[in-house]
Amino acid sequence: MTLVGFEAWAELAGDSPTSRTEWAAVVAAWGEPHRRYHDLGHLAAVLGLVGELAGAATDPDAVRLAAWYHDVVYDPRRTDNEVVSAERARAGLRGLVPPERVEEVARLVLLTAGHDPAPDDPNGAVLCDADLAVLAGPPEAYAGYASAVREEYGHLSDAEFTAGRTAVLEQLLALPALYRLPAVAAEWTPRARANLAAELSLLRRRASS
Q1: CA angle in degrees (0–180, nearest 5) for 162-191-119
Q2: Which domain of life is it from (predicted)?
């Protein structure tokens, strides 16, 4: 069973014609050709990490479903991808899972816009930590991630991208905590902050040259 296969999806949304149609649509969305980082590989990575961290969640299945939908709509030219993704989750899951879980999934998807869950939000902590895990990778892996993000924003000039990316990195570094779960925070935070600071320094040098 692959992490993005129908069997994994069916454990959360059941095996019905409607469920199969929705799974196929979600997978197709993640496979859009303009995606370089926010693709099926990222979805699988987040799902895998959510599985590892699920013990901290109060509704692990809602977090898993939120992982499926958190970037289901991803258009680098838009600023409301998370809002549209949350609405996509509401529409796609209607009738497949209980209404209260649908709303929790939508709430969690919206959280990934700022990655700043409340201290008493374990579901949000699991999803956001899994989504930001890439920041704590080895420097070469982080460089590959940053390069892929740049490709996704190929429609922007270097100056435009540098300004926008700098703002994103500054926002991340300003978060009260990059990671909320004690199980990963101590190990991941120093690596992530070092990676973010290195990229930010590089972008600032480029902007001033």
Answers
A1: 90
A2: Bacteria
Averaged pLDDT, 174-195: 97
pTM > 0.85: yes
Distance (Å, whole) CA 130 – CA 116: 13
Alpha carbons 36 and 149: distance in angstroms, whole number: 7
- pLDDT(209) > 80: no
Strands (E), 32-141: none
Helix-helix angle 81-93:99-111, to 10 degrees: 160
Q: Provide φ and ψ at 94, rounded to 5°.
A: -60, 125
**Residue 41 CB burial class (10 angstroms; 0-12, 13-18, ≥19):** middle
Please name every residue paired with 97 in a beta bridge, in sequence order, or none if there are none: 94
The CATH H-level (homologous superfamily) assignment of domain 6-208 is: 3'5'-cyclic nucleotide phosphodiesterase, catalytic domain (1.10.1300.10)
Going from N- to C-terminal start, the domains of the chain cover: 6-208
